Amino acid sequence: MLTACSGGAGSQSQLSSVTMTSVLVSPSTISIGVGSNQQFTAIAHYSDSTSKDITSSAQWISSDSSIASINSSGMAVGSTSGTVTITAKSGSQQSTSTLKVTAAASNLVSITLSPLAASVPVNTSQQFTAIGNYSDGSTSDLTALVTWSSSSTATATIDASGLLTAVAAGSTSVSATFAGVSQSTSVTVTAPSPSRPMA
């Protein structure tokens, strides 16, 4: 009987040894318009390689609630232009996200990228621009505000200012996202032409 009890205690100890190792907040960076909402999610990762959605149980904090507030379910509301850090806490673990609130996001209908279907040689750069189109017919340069990404960073990378660097021959898709609106264009990275042998 004593042996059986000892074994049970050992099993219980193993079960309780699973600990939360990290929390991941999504999206990691996002821009919204004044008066707009943004839902954040929090995923907990554990020492046994499992994960769990803890959005409803995490403690949500905004670094400046006058710019954007966030409720207990992870829903943020933009109040005025500015940037805040959104934090999700659970126990000793926490994760952060950057939330930008801007008037430039209000009434945004679409984004136009330039150039389209670009062909860029390896080891060269190409500047991309993003123009926002609004419901009132106006436009605005959003190049520095959008979130840029490349679908294949092994082919080409793109920085926060929209500057693409060609890494290796191949194809990738460049995307610009702002206030829930996104647009993408294809990019072909070409290999340098083989040099002709000297006569």
Structural commentary:
The chain has two domains: 20-104, Immunoglobulin-like, CATH 2.60.40; 107-190, Immunoglobulins (Immunoglobulin-like), CATH 2.60.40.10. With 199 residues, it is mainly β. A four-stranded mixed β-sheet has the order 2-10-9-6, with no helix packed on it. The protein has a four-stranded mixed β-sheet with strand order 12-20-19-16, with no helix packed on it. It contains one helix and 20 strands.
Task: Compile the SSE list and pairings.
Elements (H helix, E strand, L loop, with lengths): L1 H15 L3 E7 L2 E5 L3 E3 L1 E6 L4 E3 L5 E4 L5 E3 L4 E4 L3 E9 L2 E10 L5 E7 L3 E4 L3 E3 L1 E6 L4 E3 L5 E4 L5 E3 L4 E4 L3 E9 L2 E10 L9
Parallel strand pairs: 2-10, 12-20
Antiparallel strand pairs: 1-4, 3-8, 4-5, 6-9, 7-8, 9-10, 11-14, 13-18, 14-15, 16-19, 17-18, 19-20
